[in-house]
């Protein structure tokens, strides 16, 4: 039986490339805005051959999405870019933590449970993340229970 490699990404995101039209549809940001953001060096398209449409990496698409999200919350463009860049810096840390701590997910119709593993090195308690509709919280349970 093949063993799953936990360190391998599901998708090589460096191979996910989006044309400017796709980016506009996904993010709701106009081509004019995207070109302005490029001029201001907030975003960078993938190097392209002359005469071809602009293309963006998955990382840049993610950045565009978050800039737009912060703009829609009322932030200025400069602040939105700063917040989006800060969020992008946090993502590898969050991925590392979740990858190391995630021990399983049980999905049910009314309640889902995320197993984050043992609370500490004593292995006496486990930490669970609970999702009930829009409500989320943690539960800590003794292993004996």
Automatic annotation (TrEMBL):
It comes from the Bacteria. Residues 18-87 form the HTH merR-type domain. GO terms for molecular function: DNA binding. Coiled coil: none annotated. One of its GO terms (biological process) is regulation of DNA-templated transcription. Pfam families: MerR_1. CDD domains: HTH_GlnR-like (cd01105). This is Bacterial regulatory MerR domain. It comes from Lentilactobacillus farraginis DSM 18382 = JCM 14108. The lineage of its organism: Bacteria, Bacillati, Bacillota, Bacilli, Lactobacillales.
């Amino acid at each position: 039986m093949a063993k799953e490699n936990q360190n391998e990404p599901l998708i090589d995101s460096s191979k996910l490339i989006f044309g400017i039209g796709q980016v506009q549809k996904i993010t709701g940001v106009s081509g004019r805005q995207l070109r302005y953001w490029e001029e201001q060096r907030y975003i960078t398209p993938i190097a392209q051959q002359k005469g071809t449409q602009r293309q963006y990496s998955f990382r840049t698409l993610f950045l565009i999405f978050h800039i737009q999200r912060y703009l829609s919350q009322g932030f200025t463009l400069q602040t939105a870019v700063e917040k989006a860049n800060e969020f992008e810096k946090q993502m590898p840390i969050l991925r590392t933590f979740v990858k190391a701590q995630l021990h399983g997910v049980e999905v049910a119709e009314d309640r889902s449970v995320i197993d984050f593993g043992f609370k500490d090195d004593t292995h006496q308690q486990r930490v669970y993340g609970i999702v009930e509709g829009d409500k989320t919280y943690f539960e800590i349970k003794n292993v004996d229970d």
